[in-house]
Amino acid sequence: MTTFASGTTASNSKDGLTRDALTVLQPGFTGTTAPDWLLRRLGEGLASVGLFGRNIASPDQLAALTAQLRVERDDVLVAIDEEGGDVTRLEVRTGSSFPGNHALGAVDDVALTEAVALELGRRLAACGVNLNWAPSADVNSNPANPVIGVRSFGADTDLVARHTAAYVTGLQAAGVAACTKHFPGHGDTAVDSHHALPRIDANLSVLQSRELVPFRAAIAAGSRAVMSAHILVPALDPDRPATLSRRILTGLLREELGYDGLIVTDGMEMQAIAATYGIERGSVLAIAAGADAICVGGGLADDDTVRRLRDALVSAVRAGELPEERLADAANRVRALAEWTAAASAIPKAPPVTSASAVTSRTNGLNSSNASNGSGGTDGTSGTGAVKGTGGAGSTAGADGVNGTGGTDSSDGSDSSDGSSGSNSPNSPNSPNSPNSPNSSNGSGGAGGSGGSGGTSDVGLVAARRALTVTRSASYSPLTEAPYVAALTPVANIAVGDETPWGVAAELARLLPGTETGTFTGEDAGSSALAAAGARPLVAVVRDEHRHPWMAAALDTLLASRPDTVVVEMGVPQAAPRGALHIATHGAARVCGQAAAEVIAGQ
Fold first, then answer.
1. Which of 32, 204, 331, 577 could crosslink 23 through cysteines, CB 3.0-4.6 Å?
2. Phi, psi values for residue 46, rounded to 5°
3. pLDDT at residue 355 above 60?
4. Which one of 266, 292, 412, 458 is the catalytic residue?
5. Judging by beta carbons within 10 Å of its beta carbon (0-12, 13-18, 19+), is residue 438 exposed, middle or buried?
6. CA–CA distance, 177 with 341 (Å, rounded to integer)
7. Is 412 a catalytic residue?
8. Average pLDDT, the chain
């Protein structure tokens, strides 16, 4: 066993060079326990380990794994790609307990975003994870973006900036370092960098006023790490992608924006880099450009990869292609972050946020006007502890549910059968930002309520309920019999993966036993779904209808034959609402599905 205290420095010896080369790597591995080769590399100088869904079976197992790593090296950085929402590693097989960025942006309550990030950070810290490759600060300005989408807080620059800062603040308050990504901004792309090299042709003034604003906010909030994007931005560097560009990483991020924390690359085995430069050459160029840590292991997760990258860095220094001082500086920045995480983990943490009322009390009273007429009174008229519950199922007001007439879905609490108001907060600062509010005659987000007085609703479910945008036809009534759920399923991008379940079928089955489901895709999806559903009530679940012509055509077929179809959009709600009931969840986390199911079943 070899234990290294935080802040260990490398010598100028041959061993010091090799140790520095290992220190800047963030590799992955397979299995739910640490393999021998990984433990050996930690003893030799490896300072970081990246975790993925394949490494996690349960919180207890993850805690045991991270403890195993720290027996070998007590200051190891344990990183994970846990964005919540669609991208989850902690709950890869069940779906996340936290809505993702797009849902939080739809609510537009920075106090709630901070509370969600804090609780997510607490869960990571409890399992021994101290570096999160999140949040995404990308402005989703291109609706056709195949890889960002609901991972972004939205398409409005200022909204993305304030929620990025809130997320960084909440996560780091839990002692987990934030890694804001994907610098200088991946939102205006139509190509997934996992597959090829995207290009953003925006001019410098647009980049300054759009892409860079959220990163400035993250830096001001103290983000401990920033992740580079594998994208070509000719206005910044016409020759090299951001990850390999000294102009972007050193000139822009370090010198112009004044960032002094850790710069981490996106996964080096992604084709945007690997197919053009190779991972060895790409890693050398990245460190030379100003990156401090090389993320690798999503696809290549073995000792040979670590050895190849270590040797490539050492050889580049010896050949004069990579200044030894630059490699040493990168390694020292990794060690500095390890010192911060060690210090942060020793600070006593506040108790977890578990209820709606706690959200407002734990965020310094921000948006406290939202709690003035909260959910859960015994007769649905007032109650306490609301977190901007906006509009009940029967509300005739706009998106803020002011003076709404309530109903079984009212945000006045599950005990209310005829609540006389929605959140009834005429001064709610969030109502102008409710997405699609002009299209929703019934208000958004109050579905199912956010817990009665003294309730224990999880902050993630509270946020998911608030994020809903609900549009009903005049004739719609909540389902009372088990429906057939047709999931119109696109190919998942690599960041999300295809392991994580999504949709509303599992949640509806709990509320309406006997619910059945099927997956449909392609040009015959609509007719196949109709045949499978038979005479049962039909729920169609989609993800980014606007990006998939076959999906839009399938909905056309379903609604032409069955106008009573319920439509649940779990991607970016770019297409116009349609169906007897249309619910936009702004993401496909498990809690988003639960919130939607509550509305469908009138809970």
1. 331
2. -55, 130
3. no
4. 266
5. exposed
6. 7
7. no
8. 82
